[in-house]
Amino acid sequence: MTVMPLVRRVLGDGPFAETGRPSLAVVDGRSRRIAVAGDVGRLQWSGSGTAESRWTGDRIGVYDRDTLRCEHLVRSRYPAHSAAFHPTLPLLAVGTGSYDGGYAFEGELLLLRLDSGTVVSALRYEREVLGVEWCGPTRLRLVLAPCDDWENDDAHEQGHEVVVSRDDWGAVGPRAIEPEELAAPVRPAARPDHRAEARGLLADLAAVAGRPWSTRRRVWAVEGLEDGRVLAALDGVLAESWLPSGEREWVVEDDEGGRQLVPASDGASVWTNGDRRMRRGDGGAWQCPAPRIARVALDTGQVLETLSLAESAVLVAGGGRVLLRPSDHTRRRGERLTMFGLTDRVEAAPESDGSGASRRPSPQSDGSEAGKDPCPESAGVEPSADSFPEVGGFDLFNHPFPVSRASRPYVLVGTKPDAPHRDKWIVALASDGTVRRLFPLSWAPQEHHFGGPAAEFGQGLVYAGAVHDGAGLQPDGAYVVRRSLDGTVRWQHRADHPATALDVDEDTVYVAYNSGALTALDADDGTVRWHTELAVDGTPTTALSLAVTPHGSLLIGTVDGRILECAVRE
């Protein structure tokens, strides 16, 4: 019987986890509270950007100074620059904002009621608020960026200083501060960086409370093992293992961190994909450096081998095989599939040509120590590059299609070489190595669908996605659909936000959304069994990854670096 999820334990927890990487911290001696602003990160990497719509990773948290418990958590549309507790009222003022990249300085003045948790955006029109300071109970000093940088090369170093008065700031409603109250001459204005100061303050406060503090963010992948251990890949960590006791067994650190975990066919190791940030090359064009794709021993965390690649790639697994699909979306040519195994390496044959797969020597162990980088990024096993079939280009919005519980590898392939994002089909790699089309991703010919997470279930697929709209994701524009292998739609479920992760058990489809929602659907007819807003100790969070364990519990990796083990059955 399926029940509402019950969080049994939390792995990787710590003080101030909810706000991610801190950028600002302010202590109020009167109320013994701490305001922390931070960022849990974007929901995008070189292999996927399907969950990014309607997302903001900026957070503002208010904590009890004695217990470090999170009392309030606010999703902010913009990064926070400054915060100040009211001298007498239970009220926090926060100035937020950013430059839009081409013209305007946008932002808000947020007023957070500490007794109720309600938040008010107080400015009539958006302005980037660089500084806030209370000048007594009725007066609030603001420093605002210019409205824009039109014909003003100095706008990024300037600001407008004003003082706004209200008899009762606790009664200020939405959009109550008019533009006329913000008029002031422009003058030089600093934009200080508070990150180092915030990190030091939070570390000191955690130490006083007897709790170690470190920043964890974005658990991109989780896996449960038969012996009860939990694997995870997250920012700064290529892979880590947690024992059933809740103790971390081993960790393989990495500059950027892992984005995928794919169990190897030997049952004793796991492939992990470490992403690298895009950067500008010598000619000014954006480039995505090669990832760190490594195989890690499950018992020790030893890095057994590292693949040496020329460009970014995603791992595609199914039926004990692993595909390596190049994901450099800046390239418009066709992309090539390479299949890796522990005992052989196989080239995927061209679509429908009926040829068998060729075999190549096995990669060898590099003998590195557990948790250590075995060799420089340029070293490792070199994939062969001759005569691989082209399956069409890849971009991080159209082509991500990670399929859990797959009996064979599945990928999304565009049928138009010059526009691989159009007319996408779900294709599978058959046991003889041939690539075979199954059915179009979109069952409505007039709609353009993006890719998303998926699972194989009952002689078919269940997958999430979104319908493209030039104005952005529309209400009910995201979906979960179950389809037979002939393309027949068994059922569909609509949502307003894109899915971040999906998995299934024998009768239930579990879907996480970037809104923080978690939904269980009946696998047979798609009806909602339960729906909840994910929270830890009453504070909302968002699932970035999830997996049903061999023992039937649900593992959830959150954007704030925690791993939740949930009971979903009686």
Radius of gyration: 25 Å
CATH level-4 homologous superfamily of the largest domain: YVTN repeat-like/Quinoprotein amine dehydrogenase
The span between the termini is 6 Å
Main sheet: strand order: 16-17-18-19-22-23
**Second CATH tier, the architecture of the largest domain:** 7 Propeller
Structure description:
2% of the residues lie in helices and 45% in strands. It is mainly β and 570 residues long. It folds into two domains: 17-208, Lipocalin (Beta Barrel), CATH 2.40.128; 219-569, Methylamine Dehydrogenase, Chain H (7 Propeller). The strands form twelve sheets. A six-stranded antiparallel sheet has the order 16-17-18-19-22-23, with no helix packed on it. Strands 29, 33, 34, 35, 36 and 37 form a six-stranded mixed sheet that branches. It is globular.
Q: What's the topology here?
A:
Layout: E1 2-11, E2 21-28, E3 33-39, E4 58-64, E5 70-76, E6 80-85, E7 91-96, E8 98-99, E9 105-106, E10 109-113, E11 119-121, E12 129-134, E13 139-144, E14 158-165, E15 186-188, H1 195-208, E16 219-224, E17 230-242, E18 248-263, E19 269-274, E20 279-280, E21 286-287, E22 292-297, E23 303-307, E24 313-318, E25 321-326, E26 338-340, E27 345-347, E28 359-360, E29 403-404, E30 410-414, E31 424-429, E32 435-440, E33 449-450, E34 454-456, E35 460-467, E36 478-484, E37 489-495, E38 499-504, E39 508-513, E40 517-522, E41 528-533, E42 535-536, E43 539-540, E44 543-548, E45 554-558, E46 563-569
Parallel strand pairs: 29-34
Antiparallel strand pairs: 1-46, 2-3, 3-4, 4-5, 6-7, 7-10, 8-9, 10-11, 12-13, 13-14, 14-15, 16-17, 17-18, 18-19, 19-22, 20-21, 22-23, 24-25, 25-26, 26-27, 27-28, 30-31, 31-32, 33-35, 34-35, 35-36, 36-37, 38-39, 39-40, 40-41, 42-43, 44-45, 45-46
